[in-house]
Amino acid sequence: xxxxxxxxxxxxxxxxxxxxxxxxxxxxxxxxxxxxxxxxxxxxxxxxxxxxxxxxxxxxxxxxxxxxxxxxxxxxxxxxxxxxxxxxxxxxxxxxxxxxxxxxxxxxxxxxxxxxxxxxxxxxxxxxxxxxxxxxxxxxxxxxxxxxxxxxxxxxxxxxxxxxxxxxxxxxxxxxxxxxxxxxxxxxxxxxxxxxxxxxxxxxxxxxxxxxxxxxxxxxxxxxxxxxxxxxxxxxxxxxxxxxxxxxxxxxxxxxxxxxxxxxxxxxxxxxxxxxxxxxxxxxxxxxxxxxxxxxxxxxxxxxxxxxxxxxxxxxxxxxxxxxxxxxxxxxxxxxxxxxxxxxxxx
Length: 347
Known about the structure:
This protein has one domain. By secondary structure, the protein is α/β, with parallel strands linked by helices. It is globular and about 50 Å long. The protein has helices spanning 9-26, 30-41, 54-75, 83-94, 164-174, 177-181, 235-247, 261-269, and strands at 77-81, 112-124, 130-142, 148-157, 186-195, 225-227, 252-253, 276-281, 302-305, 308-313, 319-324, 327-329, 336-337. It has eight helices and 13 strands. The protein starts with 8 loop residues before the first helix and ends in a 10-residue tail after the last strand. 33% of the residues are buried. Strands 1, 2, 3, 4, 5, 6, 7 and 8 form an eight-stranded mixed β-sheet that branches. A three-stranded mixed β-sheet has the order 12-9-13, with helices on one face. The protein has a two-stranded antiparallel ribbon with strand order 10-11. α1 (9-26) runs antiparallel to α3 (54-75) and α1 (9-26) packs parallel to α8 (261-269).
């Protein structure tokens, strides 16, 4: 039940349905609520706790997030981001600054949705730790005050072989099979909000981290990493909003591949919305590899990969790090995606 074994549009749609069925089953389960409570207890912004009972605030947030995400996984629109689009979305998200902007409800393609990233984007926190973003959800929520906002959640794929955080969790769950049964294929790793018709706030910066507390985890080979440092908008929000804007451009197409009968029946039994759109770059002709009739996707733009540390091991097994300078990735002569504006995104 993952995208690792799928390489067709129909396969992506089938995997999306099965993943959504499982996530809708485990959200708000005993194990999920305990995990959510533990995660949010250390991430509730201190300003939210002013004149409030901390435990009551956390429980309120846990309940609201649980109810909203359960509805999204079951009934929200479904999108799969083609791997060739991942770097484009990540580069646009990294350059994004929504501070002070006023967004309308029409900014999103739908009121609630699930975005799957078969090729994850990695989020580096100030502590140096990495977490893969393999799925994102958004849901329009109305507060008691009448204010509206999108609740945005980022999820890590538990079976991601390149995510060091997921590897630790898999090791822990291996010794607790009962707990593993209550955990889905994705684990929530971040939640934030994006206001509607109100100025978007600046990203909340966590306190400085002492060097002794930094656990620098190596960057997965060839993957895009967005660090909290320097971001004016929360990482999860930036990725979602970049997707919203780019998927609506003429450079993309979003076909709905047909779903086989068994998958449709599974979705119907679980009351899951099964239509899935695969968002990918528009092209005018098929590109094939020599000796292979299958169409292959290639980057149509160039983009800047930021400098980063790469962790290696010497012949004696001792770890060491090397610095990889910033470089431009993509085919020669393709339009350059750089900065806050995109001059050209050609087919």
